[in-house]
């Protein structure tokens, strides 16, 4: 198979995968290095990458981080199951798409406006994006391909992503669990001994200490919690 | 919908639903398409008198086919409000013409980047001084580099079908940028033609705002957030990179629209006699005249073919290359002075030197078939004056 889309860094000014002739896979198929293949083939290659490359990480996006519709909790549970079968796997969320200024906490989160920073700082060589809105996933995947040496897997609820090395489309909870099963299968084939372990707590997230909060902790939102001059707030929730 | 309609998918609506023939204007055809599109809202500053599309859309709002409609303060306000409403999650339509389009252009060119799914009717007219309200499609040149998907209708039937298809294409998750349907003002908008239409008791499936590549707008996510705290307005490499890949994404979306143009409209071009020595390539109203010239040529036994270009963006480069592979001369008649289509065709094929840039008419002039025939005779080395006599 000729690889149209490869692990980066591809350079300063990346060419987009669609402009290189890569097309989204039809229903029931997947993309692997820009080629249309069977889903299992893409999953097996992705599994091998996640099991053999350094610091495998799952980046869950807003659509699986918030319980906003019926099937989300089941899918999120499946993602935890998936992570627990990948040795050394971390979970670093993409909770929203806001640019993080003046500085992103790269241990705590990833951001579509500068995803390279999280990938590079954590020395991540293989990762999975899931639950990220397609527009932001495409930008993120392209920037990672441009500036890092990271194998990207896109597990998309819609049509998939041309920019990822492996792209699985129409992903529901059952598909995540199928990928988990393939991870276990490939892990056994590679002779990797491992006991199912939940990924570590995100070490960088500060412990919430509501007692010492001051208005300045709310940054630009402080005006929302501070009473205005002459205003007396009497009712509280 | 406020009316009790049967909702169906676009493939059924366009290809399977029984149709009846009507004799209506192009403006009516566009409004009739909107009537069947489960459009939530229309906003307009209806430029008069070039197109009565938005007046007619106002009528169908009054009849209950559209949930909300209002007249904005002017075109920039219209196009800005379209963006806000669409990103709020509703299906939107507006239409404009010439100077109105250019006045709204600042907002329109930001639509693709903000991932605005909406349908824009462009009923072309002269935009330059001295003032004229006559047909001339130079305004389409200004849209060609905006990133939006552009369809160009030849006649009333095209206007109806393309407008309906546009509603489906714009909301595809892998597209999700605006789709414009252009046609020549007056020649199509004010003239009647036969249009086969399905019952207006049928309508396109309603908009699902959650099936989108971006979250519905709120104050914490772009585009609203971008306007307040733009990652792209910082002076550093990452800011430039996000902007560049964002721009790439818009043109990728544009490219992805091609498969839906095949699905709903039978492809971006229509070809007659593809192996001819002389090929006519035209879009919109000029395609109707080129089609007629092709018929004349056929009657005279001349080796002439015809390509009608339906999609201006994405531009059908591969398709044109295949259709024009055997041509020794390509004639591109147009309704504008700059010849935007001939420039596109020239750039698309490896032997651009065979393109004849014209004939062109503008400022409201009609395009006589005889002008095209003269170019055909010249291309074939015939004495056109004798033959025309």
Automatic annotation (TrEMBL), chain A:
GO annotation (BP), single: methanogenesis, from acetate
Q: Looking at the Swiss-Prot or TrEMBL record, what is one Pfam family this protein matches?
A: CO_dh
| Protein name as catalogued | 2-oxoglutarate:ferredoxin oxidoreductase
Give the organism the record lists: uncultured Sulfurovum sp
Q: What is the lineage of its organism?
A: Bacteria, Pseudomonadati, Campylobacterota, Epsilonproteobacteria, Campylobacterales
TrEMBL record, chain B:
* InterPro entries (UniProt xref): PFOR_II (IPR033412), Pyruvate:ferred/Flavod_OxRd (IPR050722), Pyrv_Fd/Flavodoxin_OxRdtase_N (IPR002880), THDP-binding (IPR029061), Transketo_C/PFOR_II (IPR009014)
Q: Its Gene Ontology biological processes?
A: response to oxidative stress
The Pyruvate:ferredoxin oxidoreductase core domain covers which part of the protein?
A: 276-352
Which SUPFAM superfamilies is this protein grouped with?
Thiamin diphosphate-binding fold (THDP-binding), TK C-terminal domain-like
- Give the highest taxon in the source lineage: Bacteria
Cite a single GO MF annotation: pyruvate synthase activity
Name the Enzyme Commission number(s) assigned to this protein: 1.2.7.1
The organism encoding this protein is uncultured Sulfurovum sp
Keyword field: Oxidoreductase, Pyruvate
Name it: Pyruvate:ferredoxin oxidoreductase, alpha subunit (EC)
Indicate the segments forming the Pyruvate flavodoxin/ferredoxin oxidoreductase pyrimidine binding domain, all copies.
32-251
What's the top EC group for this one? oxidoreductase
């Amino acid at each position: 198979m000729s690889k149209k889309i490869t692990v980066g860094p591809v350079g300063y000014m990346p060419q987009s995968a669609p402009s290189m002739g890569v097309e989204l896979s039809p229903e029931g198929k997947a993309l692997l290095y820009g080629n249309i293949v069977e889903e299992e083939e893409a999953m097996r290659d992705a599994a091998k990458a996640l099991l053999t490359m350094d610091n495998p990480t799952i980046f869950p996006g807003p659509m699986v981080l918030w319980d906003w519709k019926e099937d989300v909790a089941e899918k999120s549970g499946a993602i935890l199951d998936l992570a627990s079968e990948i040795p050394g796997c971390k979970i670093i969320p993409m909770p929203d798409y806001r640019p993080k200024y003046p500085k992103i906490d790269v241990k705590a989160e990833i951001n579509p406006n500068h995803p390279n920073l999280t990938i590079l700082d954590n020395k991540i060589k293989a990762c999975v994006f899931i639950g990220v809105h397609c527009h932001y996933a495409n930008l993120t995947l392209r920037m990672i391909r441009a500036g890092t040496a990271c194998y990207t897997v896109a597990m998309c609820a819609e049509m998939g992503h041309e920019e990822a090395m492996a792209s699985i489309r129409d992903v529901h909870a059952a598909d995540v669990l199928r990928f988990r099963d393939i991870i276990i299968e490939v892990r056994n084939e590679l002779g990797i001994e491992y006991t199912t372990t939940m990924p570590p707590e995100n070490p960088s997230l500060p412990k919430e200490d509501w007692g010492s909060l001051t208005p300045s902790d709310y940054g630009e939102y402080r005006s929302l919690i501070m009473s205005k001059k002459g205003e007396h707030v009497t009712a509280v929730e | 919908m406020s009316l009790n309609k049967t909702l169906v998918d676009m493939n059924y609506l366009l290809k399977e639903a029984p149709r009846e023939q009507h004799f209506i204007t192009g403006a009516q055809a566009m409004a009739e398409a909107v009537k069947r599109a489960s459009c939530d809202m229309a906003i307009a500053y209806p430029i008069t008198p070039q197109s009565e599309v938005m007046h007619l859309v106002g009528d169908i709002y009054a009849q209950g086919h559209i949930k909300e409609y209002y007249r904005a303060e002017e075109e920039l306000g219209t196009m800005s409000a379209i963006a806000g409403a669409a990103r709020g999650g509703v299906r939107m339509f507006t239409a404009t013409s010439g100077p109105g389009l250019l006045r709204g252009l600042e907002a329109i060119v930001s639509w693709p980047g903000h991932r605005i799914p909406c349908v824009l009717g462009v009923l072309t007219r002269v935009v330059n001084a001295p003032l004229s309200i006559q047909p001339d499609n130079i305004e389409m040149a200004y849209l060609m580099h905006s990133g939006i998907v552009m369809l160009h209708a030849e006649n009333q039937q095209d206007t109806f079908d393309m407008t309906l298809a546009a509603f489906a294409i714009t909301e595809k998750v892998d597209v999700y940028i605006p789709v414009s349907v252009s046609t020549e003002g007056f020649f199509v908008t004010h003239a009647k033609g036969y249009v086969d239409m399905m019952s207006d008791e049928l309508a396109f499936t309603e908009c699902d705002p959650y099936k989108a590549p971006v979250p519905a707008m709120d104050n914490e996510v772009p585009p609203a957030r971008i306007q307040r705290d733009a990652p792209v307005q910082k002076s550093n490499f990452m800011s430039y990179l996000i902007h560049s890949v964002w721009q790439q994404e818009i043109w990728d979306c544009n490219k992805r629209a091609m498969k839906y143009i095949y699905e709903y409209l039978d492809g971006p071009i229509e070809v007659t006699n593809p192996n001819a020595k002389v090929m006519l390539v035209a879009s919109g109203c000029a395609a109707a005249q080129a089609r007629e010239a092709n018929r004349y040529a056929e009657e005279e036994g001349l080796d002439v073919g015809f390509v009608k270009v339906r999609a201006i963006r994405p531009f059908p480069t591969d398709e044109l290359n295949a259709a024009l592979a055997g041509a020794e001369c390509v004639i591109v008649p147009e309704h504008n002075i700059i010849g935007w289509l001939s420039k596109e065709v020239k750039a698309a094929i490896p032997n651009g030197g065979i393109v004849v840039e014209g004939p062109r008419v503008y400022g409201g002039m009609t395009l006589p078939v005889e002008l095209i025939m003269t170019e055909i005779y010249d291309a074939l080395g015939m004495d056109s004056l004798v033959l025309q006599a």
